[in-house]
Design brief:
CATH class of the largest domain: Mainly Alpha
Strand content: 5-15%
CATH topology of the largest domain: hpI Integrase, Chain A
Largest sheet: 3 strands, antiparallel
Shape: globular
Oligomer: single chain
Order of helices and strands: EEEEHHHHHHHHHHHEEEHHHHHHHEE
Structural class: mainly alpha
Radius of gyration: 26 Å
Length: 461
C-alpha cells in the first residue's frame, strides 16, 4: 500500500530522506514530486521546523499514528478532503494514543521508588506530571515549591511524619502571604493525588486542610486613567510599547505574549495562533490594525518576537515586570499589575455591553462564573469586539489613534492583497524587508520622546 501525501499532485517523483509509516509499520523512504517537496519546504519554514521534521509530521498524521495539530488548518482540510474520497487511513491508533496521553501514568519501562520526603513528592509531580506532559504551568509550580517549601525547610519533612496538623501549621506560618500559602497547599495536594493515582502512596494528609479566604481581584485601568497610560506608553521604547499594547489589545496573558514566536504570527491572514494556553487549548486571535502595525515594526532577531538578552530565549518575566513598574509609576497607577491589562480588556468589554460569550472567547476562558455553559464563537466576533474597544482606549493619544485606521492596500503583504483580490500595484515608496518573516514594511522615522517619560535605558533586556 502506498500512501499519497496529497490528492491530485503530479510531477516527477524525487527521493526524500526519512522513513514513512504505513499502518503503524516502517516502510521504504517515500518519493515525492517537486511540487510536493516545495509544499513541504514552505510548511517547514512557516512552522519553524526542519524539512525532515515536517516530513515525519505529515507521514505520522496521514498514517494515523498521531492526530494533526489543532491549529494546522491546512492539514485538517486535506484530511477532510481525503476522508470524502475514501483515501484517509484509519486514525484509531492516533485517537487511542491521545486518550492514553490524557491519563496519569508513567512512561513504559520507567520505575521510580516511593517518595520519602515532601521534596521527593514534589519532584515526582514536577518531573512525571508537568514536565512530561509539557504543561504550561511547570515553571510557575517550580517557583511555588521553591518559595513555599524549600526556603522554609518544609521539603525535608518525611512523609511518614506528615499529618494534617503539621500541614496546617506550615500553611498558617505563611498567613501574611495568604495567596502564596494557598498556592503551595494546592500544589502539595495535587502532588499527593498524582502519586495516589500512580499507586505510590495510599493516603492524602491534605484532605480537610482549608485554604485562606481570598478576595477576587477586580482592579483594572479605568477610563479616567487610560489617557495617562497611553501617554506613558507613547514615550516607551518600541519593544515595550508593542509588548504591553499587544497584551492589552489581545487580552492575552503576559506569558503568552512573552513567548510569542514569529512562526505563530500570520501577517497574511491577520492572525496570531497560540499553540497552547493556560487552559490547555490552542487559541486564534485576530490582529487588529494597532497590533499588526506594532508587530511589523519590530525586528526579527530570533525565534521569539520579544527576545531576552539571549536572543534564542524569550524575554524574562522579571524584565517585563520591571518595565511595567516604571510605566505604572509615571502613569500614577501603582496598584495595577501586568496581569491587570488582561482584566482591563475584559472589564471594558463588559462595561460596553458585550455579551459574556464573546468575552469568554476573547479571554479564552474555559468557563465563566456567571453562567453554566457558553457557546463557541467565531474568532471574527471576538476580533471585532477587541478592535472596537481598542479604538476607544487610544482615542486620547493622537499618534496611537492614527494606527487604528483601516489598513491601506500598500500596508498589506502581496499574498494578503492577492487573497483579497486587490491589484498588485501599490504606491511607489521605499520599502524594506522585515527580517525573518520575508514580509515588507515602510521605514519609520525616528520618534521623538518626551523628556518627562521614563528612562528606558535602565530597564534590562
Amino acid at each position: 500500500m502506498s500512501l499519497m501525501l496529497t490528492a491530485g499532485m503530479d510531477g516527477e517523483p524525487e527521493p526524500v530522506a526519512g522513513p514513512v509509516f504505513i499502518e503503524g509499520e516502517q516502510a521504504a523512504p517515500k518519493r515525492y514530486s517537486e511540487r510536493e517537496r516545495l509544499m513541504l519546504e514552505r510548511r517547514a519554514a512557516f512552522f519553524g521546523r526542519t524539512f525532515e521534521e515536517e516530513v515525519a509530521y505529515w507521514e505520522a498524521v496521514l498514517s494515523g499514528t498521531r492526530l494533526p495539530d489543532p491549529t494546522d488548518l491546512e492539514v485538517i482540510q486535506r484530511l477532510d478532503a481525503m476522508r470524502g474520497k475514501g483515501l484517509l487511513p484509519n486514525q484509531k491508533l492516533a485517537k487511542t494514543m491521545a486518550r492514553l496521553a490524557s491519563v496519569d501514568r508513567l512512561p513504559e519501562g520507567t520505575q521510580i521508588s516511593c517518595p520519602v520526603t515532601v521534596g521527593d513528592l514534589c519532584r515526582v509531580y514536577l518531573e512525571y506530571k508537568l514536565k512530561a506532559s509539557g504543561s504550561y504551568s511547570y515553571a510557575h509550580v517550580r517557583r511555588t515549591v521553591r518559595h513555599t517549601m524549600e526556603q522554609s525547610g518544609f521539603d525535608q519533612v518525611k512523609l511518614t511524619e506528615l499529618t494534617p496538623g503539621r500541614i496546617r501549621q506550615w500553611h498558617a506560618e505563611m498567613a501574611s502571604r495568604h495567596v502564596a500559602a494557598n498556592t503551595g497547599l494546592k500544589v502539595l495536594r495535587a502532588a499527593f493525588r498524582f502519586c495516589q493515582r500512580l499507586e505510590l502512596l495510599k493516603e492524602d494528609p491534605t484532605v480537610g486542610v482549608q485554604r485562606f479566604r481570598e478576595e477576587a481581584r477586580t482592579r483594572y485601568i479605568r477610563p479616567d486613567e487610560m489617557p495617562r497610560v497611553m501617554y506613558v506608553l507613547n514615550t516607551a521604547s518600541p519593544k515595550y510599547q508593542a509588548f504591553f499594547l499587544t497584551q492589552l489589545f489581545t487580552a492575552s496573558r503576559p506569558r503568552e505574549v512573552g513567548t510569542m514566536r514569529w512562526r505563530d504570527v500570520d501577517f497574511v491572514g491577520m492572525r496570531w495562533r497560540k499553540p497552547t494556553s493556560k487552559t490547555g487549548r490552542p487559541q486564534e486571535i485576530v490582529l487588529n490594525p494597532v497590533v499588526y502595525r506594532l508587530l511589523r515594526r519590530l525586528p526579527a532577531l530570533g525565534e521569539y518576537v520579544f527576545p531576552g538578552k539571549d536572543l534564542q530565549k524569550p524575554m524574562a518575566e522579571c524584565t517585563s515586570r520591571k518595565a511595567w513598574d516604571r510605566i505604572r509609576r509615571v502613569a500614577e497607577i501603582p496598584d495595577v499589575t501586568v496581569y491587570d491589562l488582561r482584566r482591563t480588556m475584559g472589564s471594558w468589554l463588559a462595561n460596553h455591553g458585550i455579551n459574556l460569550s464573546t468575552i469568554q472567547a476573547a479571554l479564552n476562558h474555559s468557563t465563566l462564573q456567571a453562567t453554566h455553559r457558553y457557546a463557541h464563537l467565531d474568532v471574527q466576533t471576538a476580533g471585532r469586539a477587541l478592535d472596537g474597544i481598542t479604538r476607544h482606549m487610544v482615542s486620547s493619544s493622537p499618534e496611537l489613534h492614527d494606527l487604528c485606521k483601516p489598513l491601506a492596500p500598500d500596508e498589506l503583504t502581496p499574498e494578503a492583497r492577492a487573497s483579497m483580490g486587490l491589484p498588485d500595484e501599490v504606491r511607489a515608496e521605499t520599502r524594506t524587508a522585515h527580517p525573518g518573516t520575508g514580509q515588507t514594511m515602510r521605514p519609520m522615522s525616528n520618534r521623538e520622546r518626551d523628556d518627562e517619560g521614563p528612562d528606558w535605558s535602565e530597564v534590562p533586556g
